[in-house]
Amino acid sequence: MTSFYLSKPYEPPQAPAKLPLDESWALFGGISPEQFMARYWQKKPLLVRGAIPAFGLSEQHGELLDSPIPAAELLKFALQEAVESRLVQSKPWSFENGPFPKKSIPSVERPNWTLLFQGMEAHHPAAAKILSWFRFIPDARLDDLMISIAGIGGGVGPHFDSYDVFLIQMSGRRRWQISEQEDLSLNPNLPLKILQNFNVEQEWILEPGDMLYLPPHIAHDGIALDAGCQTWSVGFRSPSFKELLQEGLWRLAESLEDIPALEQKFADPKQRATHAAEQLPEELMKQLSLKLKELKLDQIAGFLPGITAYLSEPKQQALFEAPENPQNPKAFQKNLGISRLIPHPQTRILSLGKQVYCNGEPVTKGQAPDILLAWQTLSANKELNTKKLKQLDQSSLYEAYLAGWLIFEP
To answer: Would you state the pLDDT for residue 316?
Structure first.
């Protein structure tokens, strides 16, 4: 057995703001992101040996690389209230949510357990840097980066996900078995979502630096072969149309409060006497139809602002703290020309055309042109460094800083 978790930690680089989409990447086995999206995304699995070449190169020079977060450091996150963690044990199967007391955290040498840490990009800069590699996929689709650490034999059982996932081996080895089976029924007698019938079609052992991409609904099972085995999973959200339309409609209904013309009462001076009093009046339906067309509520454009706001909401577990010693607007403006302003790790920023939404709020609505441009830069590049902003005291940019949504880079 190799003690991978005692090796030198790998330091992932931050991806450039503008990714070379038409060039070959080692991450995808020598094809470009454009080719990956065309050939594999939502279509078929892809196994990439040496997706992170640094692991293989270091081994050739007699130096093993470990995960960017070594086991001893990673296990400490299981103690924290702010980190969403889960402990899965097999033989027999059991499931617990964290945080955990120190004595409940298994030793890496013990077999048949897995600890899962959700949303690690918010808690460690290395995880955030790994996510930056995947910004050729729209931000609206990104969910989070989950890290699993396991003892030998650890796993969560054969299962399927309803979303795309990149499984990056960061420490130790893991055996992956997959199947494109149609039978996705679950075993009703277990505390986890484990497939009742798993028919293995392909099998690989992933070494540190290898990566496996799986589209939705591919059955898979990963078993740790070494103590302290770490797999980093980059997952992509896949909301249902029901969820998107419900959220869009709810926010659309809220926006009607800002339209004074809708306070006008319905009137029907042309209503005739009727024998069908129980029926909804045709005149009411006619006028409502006209209003929908006037407001363009019968077109997708009316729903998109609410849907974008919804998709920009942070995770429920997100916590934001105001700066301990907040800078006044003048100092804030001066610092913008010196330091980089970046989103808090748990902040989500999305754009709809020229409008920007941050943590569920339309932050560019009614803002001055320079503030609008600043938000557009933050949304596109996830950083801002400028001396040109004015009237910051009443701006949504300064308010977001005071709320802890935006921070100056440490």
So the answer is: 86
